[in-house]
Amino acid sequence: MTVVRGRRGSTARLFLKPALGRRNLKVETRALVRRVRIENGRAVGVDYSQGRKKITAMARGEVILAGGVYGSPQLLMLSGVGPAERLTSVGIKPLVELPGVGKNLVEHPFMFVGWNVRPGAFRSELRLDRATLWVLRWGMFGKGLFATNGAAGNLFIRTEPTLDRPDMQFTCMSGEVSARELRLSPIGKKPPGTLGAGLSVIKQDSSGEVWLRSAEAHDPPRILFNLFKEKSDVERAIRGLRAIRDIYGREPLRSLLADEVLPGANLASDADLERFIRDSGAITQHAVGTCKMGIESDAEAVVDAALKVRGVDALRVIDASIMPDIPGGNTNAPAIMIAEKGADLIRGHSLPRARV
Ligand SMILES: Cc1cc2nc3c(=O)[nH]c(=O)nc-3n(C[C@H](O)[C@H](O)[C@H](O)COP(=O)(O)OP(=O)(O)OC[C@H]3O[C@@H](n4cnc5c(N)ncnc54)[C@H](O)[C@@H]3O)c2cc1C
Predict the structure, then answer these.
(1) CA 320–ligand 1 middle distance (angstroms)
(2) Is there a catalytic annotation at residue 286?
(3) Ligand 1 pocket, mutate which of 2, 70, 74, 285 (most atoms under 8 A from CB)
(4) Mean predicted confidence (pLDDT) in 164-170
């Protein structure tokens, strides 16, 4: 998390808002960019809509795409930059053939594991009177149970000793995700206490794709994750489930837990666990890779080391879509670092040699 003084900080609040007074900055909201204008191989501006208004903004310098892992490849394709067959199939004339646009979509597959717990866990603090006190404590001191998003404990492990880095992230929660409704009265049936852990597979061999549904920018693109397409990803997730059971089966957690509700202790064989993984597997919301950075000989590279789109002048992509591979952890801070580095590249700044 990016947190400042006990509050999550978005890039809008921490970077954009303080800069709003600058004369060289104009922010348009409720605007949908429809395409990048490319003339004679150079990006010269963008067409966008604001309500019914259709507007063109021309660029004296460069056009920067920061539409994220789904928006940036969508905009490149809407502008005629991408895999030729994906463009022609929706009636767009290819201007620059870049087969990697939209490919290499990588995520962290995600599953929940849950236990019933003995009394006294997080849920009992969701009674209105107790919760009010926790909120006040958070507001006044930035401390206490409600000063965390409930997922403060993160554990990174290697499920095989031969791995050079962790392949599994366990997000150890003090409740489970549905434990958010306040209870008004101390009288009445108490909800069961539960404890949950999120299991993110932070190395993935499968990859997916983003492509156009139509030539209209307001049509969301099609997204295919291909989670668990490769058997190695299923095997990794099974090792992860066994590892988390092992950890939660030891003291001091063991004495807190009553029984496993997800996947359920009766699911033990590889086949059972694979079924659970395929039925319940979701995403962590850490997608990357659809405009990946790479060297020239890499046919699927979309941007070069300066984040410039191959084959188009004055056009860069600066967001999580340029990551060639997925980091072994959450992606927001890496995306912010890419933006910081991108800003330096645009301004021609580099670190003094001694600090590299
Ligand atoms: C529900 C959720 C929870 C997450 N939780 C965490 C977390 O706890 N910790 C963490 O590290 N990471 C988290 N992430 C991941 C993190 O938010 C992303 O990795 C990060 O925001 C990526 O930054 P970005 O700049 O690449 O894209 P984004 O933040 O997605 O920004 C792209 C922007 O472009 C806009 N856009 C796209 N197309 C157009 C268009 N045609 N016209 C106009 N605007 C357009 C989008 O609306 C969006 O505002 C979470 C993601 C999600 C979805």
Answers:
(1) 8
(2) yes
(3) 285
(4) 96
